[in-house]
């Protein structure tokens, strides 16, 4: 069963709209709903498959709206155009949300160890899901 311990204060639709306007973004509806419900947090379960060759990773946390402000500055010239960092793993890799068509709403794994000088080459980016909802459904716990 999926649970989330929120890490930010409850958001209003207006706060999300102001964030979108200030960053010239259009967040997908599913991500807006996610932020209105939790505003980031620590999920349980928190394991996900990047892809067979890459293996499993651990989702540390989803960023709150306040955290997104800082993360956008940190990764501004490092992520592909239209990608925003919404979470991370213990290895310094980033879970990204695509905000431009045709991938709008899809989540991607950004591998910092394979980073290149041109982020738009996307040689270090791996598709995780077509939406935040699909990604949450794919999270799993380690079997004991």
From TrEMBL:
Signal peptide location: none
Gene3D superfamilies: SMI1/KNR4-like
SUPFAM superfamilies per the UniProt record, alphabetical: SMI1/KNR4-like
Knr4/Smi1-like domain sequence ranges: 10-138
A Pfam family that the UniProt record links to this protein: SMI1_KNR4
Protein name: Knr4/Smi1-like domain-containing protein
């Amino acid at each position: 069963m999926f649970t989330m311990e929120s890490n930010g204060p409850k958001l209003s639709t207006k706060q999300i709209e102001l964030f979108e306007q200030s960053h010239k973004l259009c967040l997908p509806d599913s991500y807006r709903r996610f932020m209105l419900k939790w505003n980031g947090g620590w999920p349980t379960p928190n394991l996900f498959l990047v892809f067979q060759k890459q293996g499993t990773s651990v989702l540390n946390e989803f960023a709150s709206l306040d955290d997104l402000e800082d993360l956008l500055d940190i990764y501004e010239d490092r992520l592909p155009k239209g990608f925003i960092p919404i979470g991370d793993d213990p290895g310094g890799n980033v879970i990204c949300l695509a905000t431009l068509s045709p991938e709008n709403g899809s989540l991607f794994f950004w591998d910092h160890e394979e980073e290149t000088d041109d982020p738009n080459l996307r040689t270090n980016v791996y598709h995780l899901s077509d939406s935040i909802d699909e990604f949450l459904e794919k999270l799993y716990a380690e079997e004991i």
